[in-house]
Amino acid sequence: MSEIRIRPFAPGDEGAFFALNQAWIEQFFRMEEKDRKTLGDPVGQILAPGGEILMAEDGGAAIGCCALIPLEAGGYELAKMAVSQSYQGRGVGRMLMDAAIATARARGARRLFLETNGKLAPAIRLYETAGFVHVQRTTPSEYDRSDVCMEMRFHED
Questions:
Q1: If you average pLDDT over every residue of the chain, what do you get?
Q2: DSSP secondary structure string, 87-105?
Q3: What residues make up the domain containing 33?
Q4: What pTM was estimated for this model as a whole?
Q5: Keywords assigned by UniProt (predicted)?
């Protein structure tokens, strides 16, 4: 694992970002319209509005990713986190999440929000150990599969 590194999204990463996310979504759920829109245009949907995409790579091959999507009032949504099945359980998700949290803090974020599904117990445990807490949904989700909402606050409002 010594070659695994986290880096910002770069031109040419679009296909890997799509494929990594499509793999986990289709393993457990189905691709939804919002998935196709976001994954099909990560530059326009995530980066252009002020977000960030982080890629995990091993020896130059993309093995994971996650995104920070800007929200209102100084928040970001932690979204589209994926790790290649052959790298799961090796700390790559933790590396991506830690890098995303550090990036959000450096940008002055007040909070991170995420949506997930109860079927994804390992991911939920990862979020909990990082300091995310379960919260009630305050707005409708754009995803049919979303049944768990979590949040991490950096600064009190």
A1: 94
A2: GTTTTHHHHHHHHHHHHHH
A3: 4-113
A4: 0.93
A5: Acyltransferase, Transferase
